[in-house]
């Protein structure tokens, strides 16, 4: 019989906004939005003081400002967030090598076999949260269970600065009484579709057979069937490679001329090159993304023979893509992405491609 896994999901509380409040005491206790501006852009993260007004990540700045007139916009500092994230991960690795980061502010840990401390996932989670607070002055929430789905959902139950445990014994009761909109892996649109079918809680979802769920939702139907029964066999995967690296900018006022667009593109290329160098990867495909003021979005890509090896090569490729386009309306966003790459330690044969 397989040993029951012990999985922890650690989720930092309003991470980006909390870092800004930590580094700037004048922001403490105030509604803060990281990213965007008063007029343009999108909120990347919101402090809990801002969330009380309904401000959320991915919300447009205009809507956020309407909801919270006193909202303070702060430019993101990803190098600082990465610095603290690395500090937190060092704590994780003291307890287990099976750490799967989902982003800078959250990760799964498999502590079935722990490197130090008592063999209790709950006690380990409590100790990790204490260590994070002591070393970074930031709070984290934790979910503890026997699989990734339940640990992820559990970490949200007592947020912020809380912990929740779902044991094999109480798992089905927990799932039965959980709203489907709170299921990890069920988005807003799917939740609304399920609600229209009369499916509001886990106990309702569990009544639908596998074949019907697959018919309605494709491959995802299998996942819904299994998680409604507390089944999730996905392991914690510590080695997840990036598939791409990118940078983009939303402008305060729409841009109309190629000179203005090229000037902004050079700044975006600078940021992208810095991130690309840190990724230790070799990219073959460069993609330009642009978005009109009415949110209509387009992309244009170029794949080279070999690899992008220098900043000037990146800049020239970006300019070629930009000047190959005919812009018919004002541009509110530009972005660049490098993709189709492999990490340096791999020695795989290279498939040659034709420039276009």
Automatic annotation (TrEMBL):
Q: Where in the cell is it found?
A: Cytoplasm
Q: What keywords are annotated for this sequence in UniProt?
A: Cytoplasm, DNA damage, DNA repair, DNA replication, DNA-binding, DNA-directed DNA polymerase, Magnesium, Metal-binding, Mutator protein, Nucleotidyltransferase, Transferase
Q: Where is this site: Substrate discrimination?
A: 16
Q: Does the keyword Transferase apply?
A: yes
**Cofactors demanded by this protein:** Mg(2+)
Subunit structure and binding partners: Monomer.
PANTHER family for this protein: DNA POLYMERASE KAPPA (PTHR11076:SF33), DNA REPAIR POLYMERASE UMUC / TRANSFERASE FAMILY MEMBER (PTHR11076)
The protein's name in its UniProt record: DNA polymerase IV
What gene does the UniProt entry assign to this protein? dinB
